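Sequence in, structure out. Go.
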Amino acid sequence: MTENLELIQSAIRVAIVEDDADLRDNLCAIVSSGPGLSCVGTFASAEEAWNQLPAAGPSVILMDINLPGASGIACVARLSLELPEAHFLMLTVYDDSEAIFDSLAAGASGYLRKPMEPAELLDAIRDVHRGGAPMSSSIARRVIQAFRKPHSAPLPEPSGRISVLEKIAPREREILELLAKGYLQKEIADKLGVSFSTVRTLTGRIYEKLHVHSRGQAVAKYLGAADEDA
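Output:
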């Protein structure tokens, strides 16, 4: 009895944030089947995770990017402040550089592309818990390619405090809200009925106005301002 209790207490505590109920249950079952792992909570949205997940005390959090409401990237940005010792592992069908780097900038330590084999997921959980940065091979290739390109320097922070919502024009706010929900720029262009170049230009203006240089930072700043104004 004492030995079983010690095993439970020493297990890697894993929480799951995934909106698809079947997949969420499947992920929990896979985690629970892994020796030395324990699924301590499942959550269907970023908002649910913000309110309930910290109390579960997970050491590893599996995070879907495309959640209803706020995106998984925004969820990581906020939870990483409350749970600085936790490790975030993104699970997504997206492998574009923008989503990858926004996730990493928000606080994620690993990035796996769906679907993945159960053994791959269990190995990744143990790896990220040890301090590693597990990534699917296609994701790692994107990261390497991106580092070979020049990056612009971060924009300076503004000297005075102005509400984020006052800076953003109506169309830019539409785009920012869709970015917060996990939509890619191409998907936003289709949804709003505008060209991809228009969305890219307006996204650049949003970054300039918010004094950020990634989607994760922009979304986190926007959501923080929305909470303050609520």
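Check: Residues 207 and 213 are 6 Å apart (CA to CA). The longest helix spans residues 196-210.
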